[in-house]
Amino acid sequence: MKTFSRPNFYTDLALENCEALQGESETPDGIEVTVEEDEAQGIAVTWVKITNDAGAEAMGKPIGNYITLESPRMKEADPAVHESISKIIARKLGNLHPLQKDASILVVGLGNWQVTPDALGPQVCERMLVTRHLQEAMPRELQGRVRSVSALRPGVMGLTGIETAEIILGVVRHIKPDLIIAVDALAARKTSRVNATIQISDTGINPGAGLGNKRTPINHETVGVPVIAVGVPTVVDAATLVNDTMDTLFHALSAAASENDALINMLNDMENEERYALIKEILDPETGNMFVTPKEVDAVIGRLAQIIASALNIALHPGITARDVNRYLN
Predict the structure, then answer these.
(1) CA neighbours within 13 Å on the CB side: how many for 207?
(2) 238, 231, 241, 242: which is closest to 209 by C-alpha?
(3) Considering only CA atoms, which of 253, 279, 282 is closest in space to residue 265?
């Protein structure tokens, strides 16, 4: 049996792990990929399904489904595109985990609300239509049209001194939800995917895994409830930024390079992962584990939080529209 090497870079995106394996001489068993594109809206949807242990080993991720939406326009102030993306996310959530009418859902906003690139989860919770405490006093026009939804912002260990999974487990034992939806900021391998990609998976989440941190996973095994994870890559590591910049530079230089430009030709001919490893080795003594994010992250995180919150509100409360949600939130 052929052994496939796992990607050696920081990323939370199954799509990027899958892309790294495309250079192998044969496709790993247990990995299925389907792609949909909405050219009018500029939205690409890739569904990566890991079906067995061989696929999980090659990808370095659990067996399950990983859906990725990509559009550079999601970080722009474009309400029409945002609405389209929210509707797609809502449909995909329904595909991953159909819910009964009386289901109870706990939305968990992971991350540190004091650090903007890590504040996506908490900001989504602020925009959720939470109804668990209102079930007995629900307005007549909403009765029977909304599910019981609660929201939790557990913070991070640096603020609480408690593992996030432990906080969630304590809440789960009391309110007994049928489903947890965990929202978190992620790390990407490609600079172009920062704030322009949303990943949905039904395998739970490992907080901080894309940054190389070791934390207790939040999944069915650890909290006893199915966990859907929704995330956006908001950072890349410094080596990725340098590698992407060099890739663009080498392609430009190679067009004008002569056969005698040995260094440029050598670096341009290197495999992307080889060059990344070289850059990381050079940078680490100077930059350490540095991650970077765009300067407009404050505004973009707000837009992304609104996209995801709208999608969750639509998916979790099927009897009302996005306009209804905004009416009762504002």
Answers:
(1) 22
(2) 231
(3) 253
In angstroms, the Cα distances linking 60 to 10, 56, 67, 96, 206 are: 12, 6, 16, 21, 12
Count other C-beta atoms under 10 Å from residue 101's C-beta.
Answer: 10
Note the pLDDT of residue 190: 86
List pLDDT tens digits, range 21-49: 876 556 678 999 999 988 777 899 999 99
Q: Is the pTM of this model over 0.85?
A: no
CA atoms within 13 A on the CB side of 148: 14
What tokens does 10 get? 């920081």
- What is the average pLDDT value for the chain, to the nearest integer? 82
CB–CB of 16/190 below 8 Å?
yes
H or E segment to which residue 187 belongs: strand 179-187
Contact (CB, 8 A) for 267 and 250: yes
Residue with tokens 């060099």: 246
CA distance to 265, 266, 326, per residue, from 259 (Å): 8, 11, 62
Tell me how crowded residue 98 is: count the other CB atoms within 10 A of its CB.
8
Which residue(s) pair with 74 in the sheet? Answer: none
Q: Which two tokens stand for residue 172?
A: 């789960």
How many Å separate Cα 187 from the centre of its chain? 8
Name 149's bridge partners: 105
Write out the two tokens for 9.
Answer: 């870079």
